[in-house]
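Now read the record:
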Amino acid sequence: MNVRGWRWTYVALGVLLRVVLLLWGTWQDKHAVLPYTDVDYAVYNDGAHAMWAECALEQTVESPLFEAESDLFDEPSLAAHVRCARGYIPAVSRFVLQNDPLQSKESSSFPESSLFLRASRASFWISRPLFKAIASLGDPYSRATYRYTPLLALILSPAHAVEWAPPIWGKLLFALGDIACALLMWAILDTRASHHAARSLSQPWATHLPGLLWLLNPFPAQIATRGSADSLVLVLVLGFIALLLRATPEMELVGSHAIPGDAPEKPSERTQHDPADLRVADEVAWYGAAALLALAVHFKLYPVIYGSSVLAHLATYRRHAIRILCGIKNPSAFDVNILGIEFAAIAGMMYAVLNLGVWLFWGQPFVRHALLYHVTRQDPKHNFSVYFLSTYLAGSFDASSAPPIVQTLYSLAASPLASFVPQLLACAYVGFTLGGKDLVLSCAVQTVVFVAWNKVYTSQYFLWYLVFVPIVGVTLHFDSYLKPVFLAGLWAAAQGIWLYWAYRLEFMAQDTFVPLWLSSMLLLATQVYLVQSCLTAWESWRQRQVMAHAKSQ
C-alpha cells in the first residue's frame, strides 16, 4: 500500500474509533452511574444556550418592561431571567430596534416623498435582520463557570438553534478537529521532508506515526468525544506551524552545513540582493500563520509561549537567506530580526483586533472571565500540579497575625506570579535556545515545560504536548527500540501512582495529601527526564543525518 493509501486507511479507522466512542458515550450517559461526558461539555453547552436563548427580543426591546439598557440589570423581573451580551454593539442594536423608524408614529422632518427618507427606510429594512440577530445575542458568562471565549459558545449554538442538530453537535466538531490534527501532522512532515536532505523525514514509517500515535490512540479520541474543546486549539496550533514552515522553511534542522545550496559561493556566481528586498517564500501562508496563532491564543492563552521559538526560527531563516542571497557573512542584528519583529507585530495586531471585536460584543465579562481569570486562577483542589498543596494550605492559613516577614513570604507564595513568572522564563529560554534549530521540537519542549510547571493541570493538558509526538518522533534516534516504550511506560506509571492516591483521597476520604503531593513531584521529575531523554535522542538524530549527508556527497 502506498503512502496515500495508508493515510486514508488511518483516517477511516480513526473516524470509526471516534464514532464508536460517541455511541458508547451516549449509552453510558443514559444508563451508567458515572457519565462519559466531561463536565466541561455541560459548561460549553450552557454558554451556548445562554448565547442563543436567554436574550429573546420578546423579553427585551419588545417587552413593555424594557425602556432602557439599564433595565436589563436593574429591573428585577428582567434581570432574573434575561441574560444579554453586555457589549456596546448589542446595546446599540437594541437601541436602534427600540426606536424603529419604520414603526415610529412621530412625523419625520423630511417629506414622505423625500428620496433620503425612502432610502434610509429601505436601508434600515434591509439591515433589520442583522440588528435583530446582534440584539438577541446572549451572555455565555451568565453561566458561573464559563471561562472561555464566547466564540466557542457561538460555534456550539446550532445545537440549540437548529431543531435537527444532534445534542452531540459539539462532540462531533471536536472529533473532526481530532482528525484534522492528524492531517496537519502529515502536512508538516511533508513540508519538512521536501525542504531538507534528512532522509528519515521522507521514510514511509513517518506516515505511520500520526496514524498509530494519534488517530488510533484512544486517549486523544476519548478526550475529544467526551466533550473537550482542546482539539480545536490544537488544530489552530498545528495549522499555524504548518503555514509558518511553508512561508519560512527551517534552515538548521540537520545542521547548517548539511543544507543543500548553503555552500559558500563567489559573489559573481549569483546575483546579489539587498537584505531589505528579501521576503518570505509564501506571503499568504505568512499572514495565515500569524492569524492562526492570534486565534489560538484567543481560544487558549498558552500558545503565546511559542513566540520565542518563532522569533528564534525566523532569525535563523533570515540569517541564512541573507548569507546565501546577499553574500553577507555577518548580517546586522536589525536585518536578522526584522522578520520576527514583523511577525510579532502582525500577530499582536490581529490578536488585539480580535479581542477588541469580541469585547465590543460581550463587554467586561469577557475580559474578566476569559482573560484575567486564567492569569490569576488558583485551584485548591487536588490536581497534577506540584503547586496544588501549597495553594490548598494557603487558602486555610490566616497570616494577619503573623510577623511581617511571614506575611511577605505568604503573599509571595500565594501570588499567581510565583509560578507564572518562572514558568514563562523557562519557556522563553527553551524557545530562544531550540527554536532556531528545530521549530517543532522547540514548541513541544516548551509545552512540556509549561504544563509540568503549571499551577493547575489535569489529564487533558497532556494533549497539548502529545500532539507534537508524531512529528517530533521522526527526528529522534534512541540507542534502543525499547527506550521509547520504557519512557512511555514510565510516564504512564507516574500518572498511575498519582491517580491511586487521588482515588483514596477523593472516593475513600483518606488523608493522602502528602503522598499525593509527592506523586506530583514524581510526575514532574518524570516529565523532566522524558524531555532530557528526547533531547539526547534528537541530538543523536541530527548527528547521524549530518554524517549520512556527508557520505552521500
